[in-house]
Amino acid sequence: MAFSERVDRLKSSLIREILAAAQRPEVMSFAGGLPAESMLPKVDWDQMPASMGQYGMSEGEPALREAIAAEARSLGIDCSDSQVLIVSGSQQTLDLASKLFIDRGTEVLLEAPTYLAALQVFQLFGADCLSIPQESDGPLLDALRQRLEKHHPAFAYLIPTFQNPSAVRYSEEKRDAVAALLDEYNVTLIEDEPYRELVFDDENARPIVSRMHKASWIYTGTVSKTLLPGLRVGYLIATPDLFPYLLRLKQSADLHTNRIGQWQALQWLGSEQYHAHLAELRRFYCLRRDAMQDALTKHFFDLADWQLPQGGLFFWLRLKRPLDTRTLLKPALARDVVFMPGEPFFVDPEQNPGYLRLNFSHVAPDRLDEGIRLLASVVRGAYVV
Ligand code: PMP
Prior knowledge:
Elements: H1 14-21, E1 28-29, H2 62-74, E2 84-87, H3 90-101, E3 107-112, H4 116-124, E4 128-135, E5 138-139, H5 141-150, E6 155-158, H6 172-185, E7 188-192, E8 217-222, E9 234-238, H7 243-254, H8 259-269, H9 274-299, E10 304-305, E11 314-319, H10 329-334, E12 337-338, E13 340-341, E14 355-359, H11 365-384
Bound molecules: 4'-deoxy-4'-aminopyridoxal-5'-phosphate.
């Protein structure tokens, strides 16, 4: 069959395969980034105007664009409604940006580790991915500067607030320094912020794009982590030089985002209860984070090191004695527990063994300790063999 050359780069998604295996009800899954089912708001379709079933504008529903622009301005992002494009989940931003920027061999800059599905889509389009090591407060600035001196990447893709998978949140200083460097070298930033609102300590810093003065940028967010991932509603905000291209790429992809989902998202975002819902979500996830911290301290204290996440959905564990954590998946599944191996989050997986990403939002606290105990016994078992 004469497929496009791109198809040769199409890798199966390890995370999708793991999630499929984790469908059995007895399996305790620490693998996905799923919100807790009990925290999903209930949909009330009865109020929905029939017109929402009609074709809509490619840009998205005007009232939703307005609400998103207003929220972005409150974070210090200089933008108007006309710079907001509603997309089918922020994953679509990554796809549209890839189509806009990437040809075979185009260089792009990423954090090491970075979001697996972003890495996959950039590689699918043929990008040459250059990574920058992460520290506990953001990227290693010397490494970033060196990369920018020697290369001219089409863009840098960063997740500065509760990064997936590492849970790192960039400090004020690093946000300023990254913005200044990207401006200096005139490199476009794609800033991906699905977890900004899932914060436990109220200490979030302004987005990096709000600190930039020269280079172009795309800021992207989603309702997937705070409302319903099943709505498939996300957004991007882009500088005016990029927006018209992204809009046309959106039109060729799917004409417009699901209007029913947009309508429902707007009902919630504009409701009086929204802030109470967010506060409840934070409290709920913070308790689950604490439960996992307790279980890890009990069962993993001699096996791994980690930082306590101040938001987001994940713990990122580094084994004291590195091994390829992909080899732990089978024995873990045999014990009805599943997690996300760290290797696929790196551009060079073989060079980075020994990390595990554990989601703390999904498994109920009364089963969590047992799940972590089983996982620890799988790791111990691997050292004995
Ligand atoms: N970016 C990051 C960093 C994510 O973690 C996720 C979801 N796991 C996405 C984008 C995609 O989210 P959405 O559901 O909006 O497509």
